[in-house]
Amino acid sequence: MLKKYKFNLEIPAIILFAVILIPNLVWAIIPPAFDPLRVESVTKGVDIATTIIQVLMIASLTLLTNEEASNVKRSPLLVTTLVMVLLYIISWVMYYASLFDIVILLGLVLCPCVAIILYAIDRKNIFGLVLASLFTIGHFIFAFANFLCIVIP
User: Fold this and answer.
1) Residue 153 burial (CB < 10 Å; 0-12/13-18/19+)?
2) What is the DSSP letter of 9?
3) Which residues contact 97 (CB under 8 A, 6 or more apart)?
4) Which residues, 6 or more positions from 137, have their beta carbon under 8 angstroms from its beta carbon?
5) Among 40, 78, 118, 122, which one is least packed by beta carbons within 10 Å?
6) Residue 25 maps to a domain
7) Is residue 5 situated within a structural domain?
């Protein structure tokens, strides 16, 4: 299995992660007036594990290429990836408009994870897929343990 992979800079993956990261950077630098996401985490151990998995996931998808994957081109998986990223950005816009409910929370948590998983499937990157799946689990645990009580009182 390892013979199928080579170290190669995956520019589309770098773009994907940069687009997903931009709203997080904006949120860190310019917090919205209503900001229920800025709380002390109750899942510190999960957060640490998820951060480590996230770094490995980004590295695997940006630095490893499966030689069996075709060049990046329009496919249903990549179109759905782009739709998920767009929904994620829309969720951030809604959040900055002081709207926060379970739908917005799902948009902020689910959409980037689904986008990354679909990208990994399209690129036939099993390492990225496994790590993205683990990241998704950690991201959901963090989000719902910390924020579900806010959106469903």
Assistant:
1) exposed
2) -
3) none
4) none
5) 40
6) no
7) no
Q: Would 26 be classed as within a structural domain?
A: no
Nearest CA among 123, 120, 119 for reference residue 80: 119
Give the whole-angstrom CA distance, residue 98 versus residue 31: 11
Instruction: Name the percent of the chain lying above pLDDT 90.
Output: 80
Q: Which residue is associated with the tokens 């809604």?
A: 94
What digits encode the pLDDT tens for the residues 94-128? Answer: 999 999 999 999 999 999 999 999 999 999 999 99
Helices within 65-101 (DSSP H only): 76-96
- Is 48 a member of any domain? yes
Q: How many domains does the chain have?
A: 1
Signed CA dihedral, 131, 49, 115, 61: sign only: negative
The H-or-E segment that residue 110 falls in is helix 102-122
Locate 131 and state its tokens.
Answer: 């790590």
